[in-house]
């Protein structure tokens, strides 16, 4: 039983990490007004957090295999709490921006080690339930951000979005000091600095190009140059990892289909989750004129359904296998996403409630973490966990960018001119943009279904 409480503590840190990636979206208008910065600059608070996590995850994952994951996890918890306190007390934009950087450093340390810790704590026969619970709590942070943020902002200032981390995080840190195993290793860390540098340039160039392309257009010469730089450094990174004695990541891990396809499908599912984070808060508050509190309550249907579905599906994973369960989850997930491509105006409220519940059930039933971690050898659990966390955060970052870009494209198709904000007085424009945007989400879900379905048929063929 103690292991399950420890799992809950580890997962709650992940919850706060992913929550802080999504909850700030809801506060963008308030932050922009109170800190006297334009909306696009306020959005840096979201992007710097996600991008820096993506840059650092592999570094910490590799280091955890050398010095022990518990030390890094506990240190990361303290960094995250320090960053949260800085954000909560920030009187201006730049101090808030710095706090988000400190938060991201801490979050990347805990995210890169939590999967490895879980793999050490639980036997293989319990991985389905353990990773299932961790997955639901992590996804709860991702998809409950708009709902929880709306509820908080309906009654409190934006500072409370960060203050709520402090008591929970401190309790978890103190609990971890007493129950987490001592896995300290007295090895001299060997860091592939050239590989890390090339990977960091790849990631930074890619995301700067994405965010710049949203505003200036993806055919802009500067955006194309950055994309070329990202591609060049990615090729260089792969070449370096093949040649160095102690690479940042073992590329041989990707030879296992369950590992590599599990990662890609996870990226797509997390990206689809961000479509709701971007579009639905505006849809409820601006198009349907709901209060922030009412919108928050309705959006909480998604994480509530997720919270029920994921532990149940984790039980099925232990009895059957994660691939079969994930196929079912993706099929369920595709139904409400398809519905949102032709959402009626005005919506039928009970149908909308069912759609939000189905989004949570489909998301919670998708069980890729056991698929990924069980495909990695014991000595590579740390770096495998960091890669899994990397793809999860890449999914959130790509989802944020793709959802925003396609939403604007959809509105532009409707009115025949560029639109980069909510079209006040024209809710039908926004609804058209949201429907268009969700067609891209449908494409991601179906591509993920093809990948996981391929694993399922390969598995069936091997059994016969």
Brief sketch in words of this structure:
With 464 residues, this protein is mainly α.
Question: What does this protein look like?
Answer:
The chain crosses the membrane at residues 45-63, 75-95, 101-119, 131-152, 158-175, 196-212, 218-240, 261-284, 290-310, 322-342, 348-366, 387-409, 438-457. It is a multi-pass membrane protein. Pfam families: MFS_1. α1 packs parallel to α7 (127-153) and α7 (127-153) runs antiparallel to α13 (292-299). The protein starts with a helix and ends with a helix. It has two domains: 2-182 and 248-463, MFS general substrate transporter like domains (Growth Hormone, Chain: A, Up-down Bundle); 192-247. The mean pLDDT is 81. The chain is 80% helix and 0% strand. The protein is globular, with a radius of gyration of 21 Å. With 464 residues, it is an all-alpha fold.
Jot down its keywords.
mainly alpha, Growth Hormone, Chain: A, 464 residues, single chain, 2 domains, 80% helix
Fold topology:
Elements: H1 2-26, H2 28-34, H3 39-42, H4 44-67, H5 69-88, H6 93-121, H7 127-153, H8 160-163, H9 165-179, H10 193-216, H11 221-243, H12 257-287, H13 292-299, H14 301-319, H15 322-339, H16 349-365, H17 369-373, H18 381-415, H19 427-463
Helix pairs in contact: 1-4, 1-6, 1-7, 1-9, 4-5, 4-6, 4-10, 4-18, 5-6, 5-9, 6-18, 7-12, 7-13, 7-14, 10-11, 10-18, 12-13, 12-18, 12-19, 14-15, 14-16, 15-16, 15-19, 18-19
């Amino acid at each position: 039983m103690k292991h399950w409480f420890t799992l809950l503590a580890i997962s709650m840190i992940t919850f706060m990490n992913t929550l802080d990636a999504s909850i700030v979206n809801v506060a963008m208008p308030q932050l922009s007004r109170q800190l006297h910065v334009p909306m696009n600059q306020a959005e840096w608070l979201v992007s710097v957090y996600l991008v820096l996590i993506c840059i650092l995850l592999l570094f910490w994952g590799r280091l955890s295999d050398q010095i022990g994951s518990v030390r890094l996890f506990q240190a990361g918890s303290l960094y995250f709490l320090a960053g949260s306190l800085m954000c909560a007390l920030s009187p201006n934009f730049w101090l808030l921006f710095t706090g988000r950087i400190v938060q991201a450093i801490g979050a990347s340390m805990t995210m890169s080690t939590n999967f490895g810790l879980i793999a050490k704590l639980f036997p293989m026969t319990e991985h389905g339930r353990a990773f299932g619970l961790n997955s639901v709590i992590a996804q709860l942070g991702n998809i409950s951000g708009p709902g929880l943020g709306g509820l908080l902002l309906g009654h409190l200032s934006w500072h409370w979005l960060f203050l709520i981390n402090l008591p929970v995080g401190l309790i978890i840190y103190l609990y971890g000091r007493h129950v987490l195993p001592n896995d300290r290793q007295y090895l001299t860390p060997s860091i592939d600095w050239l590989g890390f540098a090339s990977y960091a340039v790849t990631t930074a160039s890619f995301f700067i190009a994405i965010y710049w392309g949203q505003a200036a257009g993806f055919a802009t010469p500067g955006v194309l140059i950055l994309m070329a730089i990202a591609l060049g450094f990615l090729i260089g990174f792969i070449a370096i990892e093949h040649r160095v004695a102690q690479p940042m990541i073992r590329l041989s891990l990707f030879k296992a289909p369950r590992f590599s396809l599990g990662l890609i499908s996870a990226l797509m599912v997390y990206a689809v989750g961000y479509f709701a984070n971007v579009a639905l808060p505006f849809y409820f508050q601006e198009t349907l004129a709901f209060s922030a509190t009412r919108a928050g309550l309705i959006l909480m249907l998604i994480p509530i359904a997720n919270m029920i579905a994921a532990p149940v599906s984790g039980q099925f994973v232990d009895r059957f296998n994660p691939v079969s369960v994930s196929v079912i989850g993706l099929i369920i997930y595709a139904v409400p996403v398809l519905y949102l491509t032709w959402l009626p105006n005005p919506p039928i409220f009970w149908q909308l409630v069912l759609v939000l519940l189905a989004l949570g059930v489909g998301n919670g039933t998708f069980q890729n973490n056991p698929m990924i971690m069980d495909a990695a050898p014991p000595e590579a659990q740390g770096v495998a966990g960091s890669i899994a966390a990397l793809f999860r955060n890449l999914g959130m970052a790509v989802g944020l960018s793709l959802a925003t870009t396609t939403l604007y494209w959809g509105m532009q198709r409707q009115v025949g001119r560029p639109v980069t904000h909510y079209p006040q007085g024209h809710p039908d424009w926004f609804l058209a943009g949201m429907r268009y945007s969700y067609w891209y989400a449908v494409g991601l879900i179906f591509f993920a279904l093809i990948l996981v379905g391929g694993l399922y048929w390969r598995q069936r063929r091997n059994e016969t």
